[in-house]
Amino acid sequence: MASPLLENLNPEQLAAVTLPHVSALILAGAGSGKTRVLTTRIAWLLATGQASPLSILAVTFTNKAAKEMMSRLSALTPVNTRGMWVGTFHGLCNRMLRAHYRDAQLPQAFQIMDMQDQLAMIKRVYKAHNIDDERFPARQLQSLINASKEEGLRPNQVEAHDEFTRRQVEHFALYEQACQRDGVVDFPELLLRTYELLTQHEGLREHYRRRFSHILVDEFQDTNVLQYKWLKQLTSPQTSVFAVGDDDQSIYAFRGANVANMQHFERDFANAAPVKLIKLEQNYRSHGRILDAANALIKHNQARLGKNLWTADAEGEPVRAFAAPSDIDEAAFIVDVVNGLVADGVSPAEIAVLYRSNAQSRVVEHALFNAGMPYRVYGGMRFFERAEVKHALAYLRLIASPADDGAFLRVINFPPRGIGARSIETLQERAQATGSSLWQTACSQPVAGRAGSSVAAFVGLIESMRNATHGLPLPEAVDHVVHASGLLAHYTGEKDGQERVDNLQELINAADGFLRETEREIGEGGDDPLMSFLSHAALEAGETQAAEGRPALQLMTVHSAKGLEFHTVFVTGLEEGLFPHENSMSEFDGIEEERRLAYVAITRARRRLYLTHAQSRMLHGQLRYNVASRFLEEFPDGLVQWLSARRRDFTMVEDAAPATRVVAREVPGWRIGQSVKHAKFGLGIIIDAEGRGDDARVQVNFREAGVKWLALEYAKLQPA
DNA sequence: AAATGTGGAATTTTT
DNA sequence: TTCCACATTT
After folding, report:
1. How far apart are CA A269 and CA A202, in angstroms?
2. Beta strands at A616-619 and A553-557: parallel, antiparallel or unpaired
3. Given pLDDT bands bounded at 50, 70 and 90, which one contains residue A447?
């Protein structure tokens, strides 16, 4: 078969793409063409008539991945992909719940809460039931709720072995009641409710099982217990499940990802035929030495399915490492190298600085700013999370779903309209007493006087907005609400309000863009555009910040770099305590997860890889001295080229920025920050010193043995 | 209702 | 140190 679709696939990719109607686990290494295989598989199923678009469901974790899949797929197939279900777990579940809201026991206009909304809801529950948030921190309950749901557990199924947990589970149950009354669902609820819908309604379950004969799952190593159960519900002996993942890139255990799903897959999804296992190990991204480093590092993990990346490409540049005296010097080094690369014609946008934790970006930003180098920091506030945008959305939510107390409280006095805390509390008490929503309570307003009339005016405002926007095209409805609510006027009058005004305008644009993008799909569900837009706003928080005009250096955590690639990558802060993070050391599988994280970082690089660590760094307002990361020791000799600075005398560098350095309490011959070796304790770093001559003692932070004071006269310390 | 002060915590993050 | 949530002040 000379299908152009299959051209240039390597034998393993070809085997995966053209697999018969069985379930399969594709172990796809970093840069092995995972997305290509996934999309080509779908295109091939369509091209050979083995599947119609209606019979395909493809699920991802992020909206970005879903979009990417759709756009690459449309380039591969002439078949109209409408009717295919491609989306995130949450997006697909939302779709099912909208279609079967009655069976799912939800109101038609149920709203989705993001994490902020969820926390606010918990605090409201606390207030209504006089729960002490000192004893029961709201965030802790939030974690318990989400973790429980992600394991598929309702409050009555959560095991509580102690009194504290028992109380928390009670609060969990109260929270669920409140959500149900308000007609709101949190993120994990979307999945859990859909899962229960399928388990409890055989007709529906059979319908979807018959419909989706092909289910494809991206990033399978990131699935949690509930997602796995959900997939099982959709699967019959006739279903082909094509799961793509990489156990070596499993870095989300902390949010419930369960790599064991990969091991269980072979057992649980073997139906008519055994599950096929295919490994994609040829890497199309990186030069040889980068892969050598990645392979060498990940070999130190015990729990692996086992994979080794290789490339037909060149060995390339050596991997380089740099030991900086301080975090400031580390940043200066990065600026130096970047300047050199940019002078050589590498675009700054093709260079990434990766770090373990966000706090590390500050020093690098500072150095880049002073060097006049454009950069972009990932992470932070998303568009739909901004206060002004959430306010506008709350008005829209209240129009669509008046029982939504969260939305009600957000805007009842914003912009300020003279409804004080007192009136709101009275309203809440009465709502609590009658078991009705704040909106209902506000409508049946028997309170006389000024407060009563303000509340009545608010009710009138929302009702007039509902009438005025009824039947309007979505962007015009949003436009109306932004004006009629007084939000625009409020921010226009405020100093520093321009950005917020811009964001409100941008919300109108977003509504317009959303309408255009979904136009083709409307008719299929006959959905209310406002409802869809509100779901969209909750499920897709939007970009962190608009892309810069000129190409900018990319700064991000290793986690957010997953799935991306760059010409040059700096992996920074490779220090014990930071990377691997100290918290991970007490966690189950913690160090191995940190190592996978380092593996992800390394495999982002196409051509050049720099590994850096700093011997001292400012952390939580204190200067800390860290030993180089164990990961740096896990590369075979000769693979990593240490740059001159390791040999260079520290004092040279210290002279460059003397003001930033603590003047060491001098012990002749030794320096704070110096790496040393001890016969018994091994490698360490000098972090303090005192005394002179025979009394001279140094404090050393040993990698293995911890912090110790040593008398120089007796301890046979060697410079390392 | 905004402005200012205080205490505590400070991996990683998407939906 | 720096950020945030929350409390108190003005």
Report:
1. 20
2. unpaired
3. low
Name the residue among A288, A341, A294 with its Cα closest to residue A315.
A288
Residue A35 known to be catalytic: yes
Q: Express each pLDDT in A413-445 by its tens digit.
A: 999 888 888 888 889 989 989 999 999 999 986
Scanning every strand, the nucleotide with its C1' closest to A620's CA turns out to be: C1
SS3 A26: strand
Q: Measured from the CB, is A413 under 7 Å from any atom of strand B?
A: yes
Give pairs for A205-209: CB < 8 Å, separation 24+: A205/A233, A205/A234, A208/A96, A208/A234, A209/A234, A209/A235, A209/A236, A209/A238, A209/A239
* Amino acid A493: pLDDT: 80
Query: Which residues are CB-contacts of A453 (< 8 A; sequence separation ≥ 6)?
Result: none
Q: Across residues A137-163, what is the average pLDDT?
A: 95
Place of tokens 């014990």: A576
A34 is known as an active-site residue: yes
Collapsing DSSP to helix, strand or coil, A164 comes out as helix
Catalytic residue among A12, A13, A34, A360, which? A34
The radius of gyration of chain A from alpha carbons, rounded to an integer in Å, stands at 29
How high is the pLDDT of residue A342? 96
Q: Which nucleotide is nearest, taking the CA of residue A119 and each C1'?
A: C5
Phi/psi for A538 (5° steps) reads: -80, -35
**Distance of C1' in B15 from CA in A194, Å:** 15
CB of A587 within 7 Å of some strand B atom:
yes
CA-nearest of A579, A558, A626, A612 to A319 is: A612
Listed in sequence order, the DSSP H helices in A269-380 are 288-298, 327-343, 361-371
Q: Is the CB of A62 under 7 A from strand B?
A: yes
